[in-house]
């Protein structure tokens, strides 16, 4: 048994017949060093690249890819080309009491431990393969739940349950079709939302931000159109700052896009009265909220039908839609606020002021009203993110008591 935190298996193990690689990345090249000439390298994550195939071919090593569902009988089938030359033991984890301990990935700042077992000339990699999936409409509730669990004050700004809730205006099935999950052993570690065909917005479990196996799988998925995540051509990825996936994408040729400005207000102190008439919108007033939104954003096609679809979604159980009315009783500004649960950051998405009623302080008023609503819902803070080029929006949010956080940038892949 070899623990990679104590020693490098590529320096210790030699002359094995077969390596089963379920990690990917540079583990393929490192595994070649453990194989005898004429050995076998099987990857379970992706096809070997041209350089790896060349290195293997120079030594007569067969290198290939097998994509499988978890199956304890599969390794015996993989080993058939080497029948009579190797003995292959059963793959699995040692579940004896002496070896029972919490998974390292649950310990903050701890990298996942990888154990390699040498059995009769075979190195078996005990890592678990990352599974990319679409949750389906029935699974969206679980996606919203884990996104809520991943939100915390002082943490990275990333995809929020409210982002999924806002997308739900298109209906449950389209929302499910736009959602991707990455999981290991049934535990969801990353969630992606396709906010349009060319933009993937990502969130990661806090303990998985530096998970190399996960990051490499996400990068492979977003880089290959046949994986069904991003289409061919120019595409964008929004990932939390400091996540390993950002580093890997940049190394792979992706570039930094336009800056965005996150803003946040702590809700530990009382929020003042906005000084205007504020109403919580229900189904009967949905048409008014929709009308203000259409008048706030050029090209908006939002309808009251979409409001009803949004309100029927799982995230809306912890959400509110508000309008501000002027002295004549007209709805002049609208906002939706989304809670992630008690003691978690809340989200503003969207906020708009009717174009015929701007420059009267309604943007500041509706933002303060949004903060008060989130405070009543138990949120610890209020978050919003806007393009840095939208200086008017940044100024409005700051006037309502939100503080600027460090800018963030999407990454993009050029069309060529």
UniProtKB/TrEMBL annotation:
Residues 276-416 form the N-acetyltransferase domain. InterPro entries: Acyl_CoA_acyltransferase, GNAT_dom, NAD(P)-bd_dom_sf. Pfam families: Acetyltransf_1, ADH_zinc_N_2. Coiled coil: none annotated. This is Ribosomal protein S18 acetylase RimI-like enzyme. It comes from Streptosporangium lutulentum.
């Amino acid at each position: 048994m070899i623990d990679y935190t104590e020693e490098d298996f590529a320096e210790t193990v030699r002359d094995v017949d077969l390596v089963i690689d379920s990690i990917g990345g540079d583990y393929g090249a490192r595994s070649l060093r453990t194989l005898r000439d004429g050995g076998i390298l099987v990857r379970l994550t992706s096809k070997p690249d041209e350089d790896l195939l060349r290195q293997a071919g120079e030594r007569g090593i067969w290198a290939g890819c097998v994509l499988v569902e978890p199956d304890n009988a599969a390794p015996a089938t993989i080993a058939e080309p080497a029948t009579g030359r190797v003995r292959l033991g059963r793959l699995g984890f040692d579940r004896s009491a002496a070896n029972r301990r919490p998974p390292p990935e649950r310990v903050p700042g701890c990298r996942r431990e990888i154990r390699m077992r040498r059995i009769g000339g075979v190195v078996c990699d005990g890592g678990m393969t990352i599974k990319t999936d679409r949750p389906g409409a029935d699974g969206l509730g679980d996606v919203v739940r884990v996104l809520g669990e991943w939100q915390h004050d002082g943490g990275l700004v990333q995809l929020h349950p409210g982002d999924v809730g806002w997308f739900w205006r298109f209906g449950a099935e389209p929302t499910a079709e736009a959602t991707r999950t990455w999981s290991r052993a049934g535990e969801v570690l990353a969630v992606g939302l396709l906010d349009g065909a060319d933009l993937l917005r990502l969130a990661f479990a806090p303990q998985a931000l530096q998970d190399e196996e996960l990051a490499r799988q996400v990068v492979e998925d977003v880089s290959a159109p046949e994986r069904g995540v991003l289409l061919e051509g120019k595409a964008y990825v929004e990932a939390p700052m400091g996540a390993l996936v950002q580093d890997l994408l940049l190394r792979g040729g992706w570039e930094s896009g336009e800056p965005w400005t996150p803003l946040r207000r702590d809700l530990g102190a009382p929020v003042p009265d906005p000084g205007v008439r504020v109403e919580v919108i229900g189904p009967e007033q949905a048409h008014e909220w929709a009308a203000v939104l259409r008048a706030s954003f050029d090209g908006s096609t939002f309808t009251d039908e979409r409001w009803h679809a949004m309100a029927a979604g799982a995230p809306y159980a912890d959400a509110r839609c508000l309008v501000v009315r002027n002295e004549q009783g007209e709805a002049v500004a609208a906002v939706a606020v989304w809670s992630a649960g008690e003691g978690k950051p809340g989200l503003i998405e969207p906020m708009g002021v009717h174009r015929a009623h701007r420059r009267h302080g309604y943007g500041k008023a509706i933002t303060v009203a949004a903060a008060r609503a989130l405070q009543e819902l138990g949120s610890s803070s209020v978050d919003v993110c806007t393009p840095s080029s939208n200086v008017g929006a940044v100024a409005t949010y700051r006037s309502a008591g939100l503080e600027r956080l460090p800018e963030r940038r999407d990454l993009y892949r050029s069309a060529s």
